[in-house]
Amino acid sequence: MPEYIPDTDEVSRLLFEPFMRPAGRDDLHWDNIFQFPSDQGACESVVWRAKAPAMVDVHAIGCDKQGSDRKSGRTKSTYFGSITAKVAEIRALRSKGGISITVSHCPDEFEAHAHLAFSDGAKKNDKSELKVLLRAKFGPLSGHTCP
Amino acid sequence: MTSTGAQIYRNSGGITEITGTPDSGGVFWVTYALSVYAGVAEMTGYSNFAVGQFQQTAAPVDPVGDKTKSSEQVEFEKRKARLIDAVTAMKSSAPNWSGRGTRVSEASAQSAKKFLECLPGNARLPRVAPDGEGDVMFVWDNLPGGQSCVVTVEKRDLHLACGLGTPEAQHVDAQRFLGLKIPKAIFDRIPSK
């Protein structure tokens, strides 16, 4: 059953190596980590930390996903760590058009699974603004290499 | 930043790019005609197919070689070319952090390249990203005062958001872009050096 995620909690975003990441970081690409892809429901998956309190729990979920991806043919899927943000800070974001980001529990894939999504009525500029602002709310990488 | 008629064609970043004259092999007049056509097309909503065809001829003309350009100008053009290459690559595969592939649409990539070509030499060059909906985002972050700005290229429309997350935030929604001239409402807000 989905539960309400309190503002006081945190969520972590699992990060997988971009397929086409250039050798080393370059100064041409802006890391648009939160793309809210339209072909995947226009939402972003995150880990609700109340259900996975230790970073080792988050990494275990990342490695599980890497394993299932590879079994399903996505052989390049490589988990390399996660970044974390406070739910209250995500929900407080507002675009010029008044659009916000919702954080909701979606325990369909695993118990700690949550979704970030745009509130109703988001236009292109609202989405782009929030993608940039959201990225800044997440802290530094907690790196990990799956065994 | 102001927009002049001379900025309608492929800018190279310096004064030489606005010196098209009747002596330069007729390029000025071809370009002028294209600008008029583009203006009409913008007003009427007609396709700019013909403009695109002619622009293939007009755009590559660069009457001044690298030797006469400042190092800043040369660097600007090199970076612009690398950005164009990055946009082109995104048609087949673009960065994504979800363990899946993503890409941008042909139409958005094409407009994004034209947008870069239209940026004048005094513009700051942005960084580029796929937006997750098949379109292209150009992001200027870490601007003076901690401001940031993003232009999203959606097929033949440009969207601009600046002053992100601040009370002074500005949105300019869906401005038609036919590949020759950045709409003034957006051009005026593009971060400059």
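The longest strand of chain B covers residues 170-176.
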